Amino acid sequence: MSVIFTSAEDAEQAFYEAIGRGDLDALMSVWADDEEIVCIHPTGQYLRGPLAIRDSWRSIFASNSRLTVHVKRSVCWKGLLIAVHSVVETLYLGDEPTPHGPMLSTNVFQRGANGWRLLSHHASASADPGSAETGSAPQAAPLRTLH
Amino acid sequence: MSVIFTSAEDAEQAFYEAIGRGDLDALMSVWADDEEIVCIHPTGQYLRGPLAIRDSWRSIFASNSRLTVHVKRSVCWKGLLIAVHSVVETLYLGDEPTPHGPMLSTNVFQRGANGWRLLSHHASASADPGSAETGSAPQAAPLRTLH
Question: Which residues of B touch A124 (CB under 8 A)?
Fold first, then answer.
């Protein structure tokens, strides 16, 4: 039985925690049960569908030491059925103290019978190293509820 | 008086046509009237708010020859108030026959009193040159209506 996320924020937290644990099943359970889910990596790799996305993350987990992602929400838009978060990710590899990134991600969530799930994760490298942790670009995370 | 876009598709078409004409006012009129709009360029530049976004596109239009963007929708998700399109952009500069890109973009639209407007445009370079025009990665553009 899968977990029901009652908010896009909960689903997003579970997504990044699963990355932190290298837990492929937990990671995949955050995605919507849909053939059309999309994941775009900072490398420019475009993945569509659960099989391609699972394969990619399996490979990422296999070839990296522990990944810890610190996430700062920049802007959130919330509809009845879709929510979108623009976030800044700072990545730590293993016990390295120096962060990688920052990455800019647009995360799209859908509300369905099983709560909120991830439809799309689009990540790309930020040009601004200052936005890692220090937050020079994105500041607070105002929640824009549209309904 | 600004144009009212009756669908996210119309707003998206107006966005790319404005880029093709180098028409800054038309481009900005597609965005939602909101301080929290977001534009992420393939360079990794993160822009928030209409002033920063306008300045950036003014500079892009000033320093480039005519830009023509061919857009192929990969996946679209449509809620009552928010729609998200995952698209592949192929860019032509001036009269050059060889395309640049492809770029992968996640475009987020909001339905308000003035129809559909752009909330966020997140573009990054694709790792797959074959997805330009030939469409090796994204195929059709199934519209996922969630309501």
Answer: 40, 42, 44, 122, 124
Chain A residues near residue B124 by CB distance under 8 angstroms: 40, 42, 44, 122, 124
Residue whose structure tokens are 């775009």 = A40
d(CA B108, CA B110): 7
Chain A contacts of B42, Cβ < 8 Å? Answer: 124
The pLDDT tens digits for B8-44 are: 999 999 999 999 999 999 999 999 999 999 999 999 9
> What was the ipTM of the complex prediction?
0.89
Amino acid at site A106: T
Instruction: Reduce the DSSP state of residue B109 to 3 states and report it.
Output: strand
pTM of the prediction? Answer: 0.89
Contact status of A8 with chain B (Cβ, < 8 Å): no
Tell me, letter by letter, the H, E, C secondary structure of A87-136.
EEEEEEECCCCCCEEEEEEEEEEEEECCEEEEEEEEEEECCCHHHCCCCC
Instruction: Please name the residues in contact with B129: beta carbons below 8 A apart, sequence gap of 6 or more.
Output: B102
Contact A108 B106 (CB under 8 A): yes
Please give the pLDDT value at position B144. 55
Interface of A with B in 114-133 (CB under 8 A): 119-120, 122, 124-128, 131
Helices (H), A2-127: 8-21, 24-30, 50-63
pLDDT, one tens digit per residue, over B47-78 is 999 999 999 999 999 987 789 999 999 999 99
pLDDT at residue A138, as a whole number? 43
The SS3 call for residue B34 is coil
Contact (CB, 8 A) for A44 and B126: yes
